[in-house]
Design brief:
This protein is mostly helical and 164 residues long. Helices cover 88% and strands 0% of the residues. It holds the Pfam family Anthrone_oxy.
């Protein structure tokens, strides 16, 4: 099996795992904690986010690995693929970088960090409600965007694999 094909398989697996992670947050985690009180919602989200922020090794391998591997696959694919397949891979990579990774770094992580910086124990009910309102809807919106484009990226990568 050639290097490009192995890279594409690895990329597809890692990007699909990221899509599944985002999907799980969209359809299970966030709806599950949405029924909690403002204080409990913030505490629950912060607890989950701390696992990620402490560079949980398997999560980091998948998340950063997907980013590295999609770039490597694209570079390798330029010399290995037909023009149509090259276009499909470049579009998939662009969507992944601009619609999954960029919003993560520019929007979701800063929202997470803002939530982490709160002194929940010192906040009254109104302050907790405001903090949650400033966080929850925007975070869910951008996670939905990331989820859709991660799914589209995975689908495009699967199609590329099937064309090999």
């Amino acid at each position: 099996m050639e290097i490009f094909h192995l890279a594409l398989i690895t990329t597809t697996l890692l990007c699909s795992l990221v899509a599944g992670f985002l999907f799980a947050f969209a359809v299970v985690v966030m709806p599950g904690i949405s029924s909690l009180s403002d204080q409990d919602f913030i505490r629950a989200f912060r607890a989950m986010d701390r696992v990620i922020q402490k560079n949980q090794p398997i999560f980091m391998l998948v998340w950063i690995g997907s980013l590295i591997m999609i770039v490597i696959s694209t570079i390798l694919g330029i010399s290995e693929l037909s023009r149509v397949q090259q276009a499909l891979l470049v579009i998939a990579t662009s969507l992944y970088l601009l619609s999954v990774q960029l919003p993560t770094v520019a929007i979701n992580i800063p929202l997470n960090n803002k939530l982490q910086s709160l002194s929940v124990e010192k906040m009254d009910a109104d302050a907790l409600r405001v903090a949650r309102d400033e966080f929850e809807a925007r975070w869910k919106y951008w996670n939905a965007i990331r989820t859709v484009f991660a799914f589209i990226t995975s689908l495009m990568l699967i199609i590329l694999l099937l064309l090999q």
